[in-house]
Amino acid sequence: MKKNTTTKRFLFEKRNYRILFLAFALIASGFILMTGGGSENPNYFNEEIFNFRRIRLAPTLVLIGFGVAMYSILTHPTPKK
Question: What CA–CA distances, in Å, run from 37 to 30, 44, 47, 53, 60?
Answer without folding.
Answer: 15, 12, 8, 11, 18
